[in-house]
Amino acid sequence: MAHKGFTPSKTFVDTATHAQSCQSICVQTIQHCLQVGGSHVEPSHLRLMQDCAEICETTGTMLLRGSPQHNQVTAACASICELCAQSCDRFTGDAQMKACADECRRCAAACQQVAQMRPGGAAGGHHSVP
Fold this sequence. Notes:
4 helices, disordered C terminus
């Protein structure tokens, strides 16, 4: 847990918001895929979307509480979000899939920025996390 009196930086809050939005659209898009059927329900695609939703949920929570492991989890989140976006891109002409891919890319970019911060969030004037 973060130290007493911890307040997440704006970067952490913004990234957590991206992760929460990504988690939400992935869950919604999984339901869309189940309704559409066909190639939308390929097991590898659905598992990747589930992985993306779960890592985004975890990332948002860890950032908001100032986890010292934020670098590792945001790096993993960025990678999985990018893979999910690529998977969703395969479904051209499907607005829901495009919206999911776009949100995954926004989250990936935000997470990549946080992942590159020095441990403890020292880059950019952030707080120190024990």
